[in-house]
Amino acid sequence: MKDQFKDIRAYRVGWILPFCDFLFAFPLLGIWVWRTTKGIRLDYLGDRKQIERDIKQGAFFMTNHRDIVLDSAWLSLLLRCRYFIRPFIGIGNNLFAYKWIEILVRFNRCFVVKRGAGAHAQLENAKQLSAYIRHLRERRKSIWLAQREGRAKDSNDLTQASVLHMLTLGEKDFFENVKTLNICPVSITYEYDPCDYLKAREMQLKRDNPKWRKRAKDDVESMVTGIRGKKGRVTYRLTPSINPEIDALLEAHPEYRDLPTHDQLQHVCDIIDRRIHLGYEIYERGTDFDAYIESRLALIDIPNKDEAFLRERLIEMYNNPVVNYKKAHEKSNFSGIV
Questions:
Q1: In terms of DSSP H, where are the helices of 144-281?
Q2: Does any domain span residue 3?
Q3: Is residue 1 part of a domain?
Q4: Is 337 contained in some domain?
Q5: What pLDDT is recorded for position 3?
Q6: Any idea of the CA torsion for 162, 123, 94, 29, to the nearest 10 degrees?
Q7: Rg of the chain taking only CA atoms, in angstroms
Q8: pLDDT tens digit string along 235-291?
Q9: Nearest CA among 183, 172, 175, 92 for reference residue 137
Q10: What are phi and psi of 38, to 5 degrees?
Q11: With pLDDT > 70 as the criterion, what percentage of the chain qualifies?
C-alpha cells in the first residue's frame, strides 16, 4: 500500500484479524446482543440472490446511523457469520478521545475519516480518503460508511451530499464513478435507542447556545451508553446495488449527465434515502410507550430544562422513521425493491 495512506488506512494484520475476531470480538459482540437486545436480525429488501451477487463483487454498505460503535460492529459480525466477509469501516477521528482507541479500531479494519480542519485541509483530507476508498474498491473490498457525518439526532435519515461528493472527487463522469463504488444501502432499525435522551439533551443545549460544542468525553459517554443500553429488537436490512437504478434514471433522463454536480449528487442521494426508508422495520409501540418517553425525559439533567421541548424531540426521534417509511412506500414504483 502506498505511503500516502499511512495515516488513515486500516492496519494490515493478516491472520491476526480472524484470530482476534473469534477469540475476542465475536464473543464480546455476542454478549452485547444477549444483554442489550431482544434479538438481532439480518434481512433483505428485494432479490436476495442479487444482493448476494453484489456482495461477492465487493459492496459499499451505506447505512443510516444510530449508534457510534454498534451500527458498523454488528453489521460486520452479521456479514462475517453469513458471508465470511468483513468490511472496512470508516470512523471519524473526532471519536479518538484517547490514542488507544485509534490503535484498537485501526487494528480492526477501520480507516480514519479526518474531520475538524480548515477549508484547505478538509479538501486535501477528502482527496486522500477518496483515493483510499477507490484503492479498496479496485481490490473489490467491501466498505461501510454512514450516509452522513455524525448521527441524525432526530432520526430523519437523509444522505449528506458532501459525503457522496467526497467519495467521487477527482473523477469526470460522476454517475459512472458512483457505480464503481457499488453502493448497497442498508437500513438499521433499533426498537429503542439507548442514546435517545443524550441526543435530546444535545438538541436543547444547541438550541439555547448555538456555539455549544460536544467535548471528547461526550462522545465517550455516547459510545458507552450505546453499547450498554437496552435496544429491544434490532434489524439490519440489506438492499441491492443502486447501479441498475442509476442506469434506469439515465435511460429515462439522459440530460442528467450534463446537470451541475450538486443536482447529480441530489439524484443519487434520493435513491439511497428511498432505499433506507423502504427498509426500515416498523415496530409497534405498546401502550407503555408514553411511560417510556417520560422515563427517558427523567434522565436528562441540564440547566433550564425545557421538558416540553425535550419530550417533543424524543417523540420525534421515533416518529420520523415511520413518516419516512410511509412516504417511501407511497412513492415507490420500482418492482425490484418492493
A1: 161-167, 174-181, 196-208, 216-228, 243-252, 261-278
A2: no
A3: no
A4: no
A5: 75
A6: 60
A7: 20
A8: 999 999 999 999 999 999 999 999 999 999 999 999 999 999 999 999 998 889 999
A9: 183
A10: -100, 20
A11: 94
Q: Which amino acid is at 180?
A: T
- The answer as to whether 322 is a domain residue is yes
Give me the CATH number covering residue 165. Answer: 3.40.1130
Average pLDDT over all residues of the chain: 91
Q: How confident is the model at residue 116 (pLDDT cuts 50, 70, 90)?
A: confident
For the residues of 238-269, what is the DSSP string, one character each?
E---SHHHHHHHHHH-GGGGGS-HHHHHHHHH
pLDDT for the residue numbered 338: 43
Distances from the Cα of 65 to the Cαs of 91, 111, 146, 153, 333, in angstroms? 12, 17, 6, 9, 26
Quickly tell me which residue has 463522469 as its cell: 173
Quote the domain boundaries for residue 303. 8-24+36-331
Band (335; pLDDT cuts 50, 70, 90) = very low
How many domains does the chain divide into?
1
